[in-house]
Specification:
The protein is 37% helix and 17% strand. The chain is of the alpha/beta class. The strands form 3 sheets. The protein has an 8-stranded parallel β-barrel with strand order 1-2-3-5-8-9-10-13, surrounded by 4 helices. Strands 6-7 form a two-stranded antiparallel sheet. Strands 11-12 form a two-stranded antiparallel sheet. It is globular, with a radius of gyration of 19 Å. The relative contact order is 0.14.
Length: 307
């Protein structure tokens, strides 16, 4: 099993940068590219409410009034400032966006970046966010299915004819098409419920397990998806998996980048093709960014050399 590629979640949200320095997230992507990172990942929230008790993975980690830059806009800016690092969402709340608009924005970004976009998508958890854009929270699963299926149709041959419970397209042209053959890769996030496994098998290219997924859970999940793909006539070896590196501490009790990145080998053995690192777990202030990337470049090169 080869070493997974490295993905880095960069802070396009929160208070890492003051509001008048939020544009510096673009420089983080440049530095990540120079350090050998394969993909930069940005998250998504369109709006926030104070009803964070619905967050399913513990206490919501941020104040509700911090900035959240719109991810596709961020990635477009990064595309123009970089050459080869891939551009990923992790995750984009796809049901908040009209399907035809999502397809056009993604295709445009893929063309401008010369085929570097990966769309990590999910249903979201915040009802008020759906209310704010006029979408039905109770139908978010169906909205996700239909949005991605419609994107797939719009990225195919024109004119497009597509019908689903929430999206209908009749004799529609959406140009240009994405650069990547088959369209922009779609990564579905979350646990492998029956519904999520079905959408991943029918519509997906990759799986993003929940951040606190165990190694055994990752192994079992990859096996389950590959079996479903085989039964559906898809090549299971083409499955892509983006798993989060568990933060490790050194002897001094401080977060250790070297020990954390060494975990990429374990993820690879369990079926991950990408190892995701959370930048904010290791650097808390902008002043620490240069040292972080210097260390990242050196340590990641050593991890790759180990094979």
């Amino acid at each position: 099993m080869s070493t997974p590629t490295l993905t880095l979640t960069i802070p396009s949200y929160g208070r890492f940068f003051p509001v008048d320095r939020l544009h510096e997230v673009i420089e983080l992507a440049r530095m990540a590219e120079r350090a050998g990172v394969g993909s930069v990942v940005v998250p998504d929230h369109v709006v926030m409410s104070d009803q964070t008790q619905r967050y399913e993975w513990g206490e919501f980690p941020l104040p509700i009034d911090v900035p959240w830059l719109e991810p596709m806009t961020v990635l477009a800016a990064i595309a123009g400032a970089t050459e080869h690092v891939r551009l990923a969402t992790g995750i984009l709340i796809a049901p908040l966006r009209p399907a035809a608009l999502l397809a056009k924005v993604a295709a445009t970004l893929d063309v401008l970046s010369r085929g570097r976009l990966d769309l990590g998508v999910g249903t979201g958890w915040q009802k008020e966010e759906f209310d704010a854009v006029g979408a039905d929270y109770e139908q978010r699963g169906q909205l996700l299915n239909d949005a991605i299926a419609a994107c797939r149709a719009l990225w195919g041959e024109s004119p497009t004819h597509f019908t689903s419970p929430t999206v209908t397209l009749e004799k529609i042209w959406s140009e240009p098409k994405p650069v990547q053959p088959g369209g922009v890769p779609i990564w579905f996030s979350g646990t492998l419920t029956k519904r999520n496994l079905d959408r991943l098998t029918r519509l997906g290219d990759g799986w993003i397990p929940i951040m606190n997924e165990t190694l055994d859970g990752l192994t079992a999940g990859v096996a389950r998806v590959k079996q479903a793909w085989s039964e559906a006539g898809r090549d299971p070896e083409k499955l892509r998996v983006r798993a989060t590196l568990e933060r490790e501490r050194g002897a001094d009790g401080r977060p250790s980048l070297a020990r954390t990145l060494a975990g990429a080998h374990d993820l690879g053995r369990r079926g991950a093709t990408e190892a995701q690192l959370q930048m904010l777990a290791f650097v808390r202030k902008p002043e620490g960014v240069p040292a972080f990337f210097d260390e990242l470049r050196e340590v990641w090169a050593a991890v790759q050399a180990e094979g």
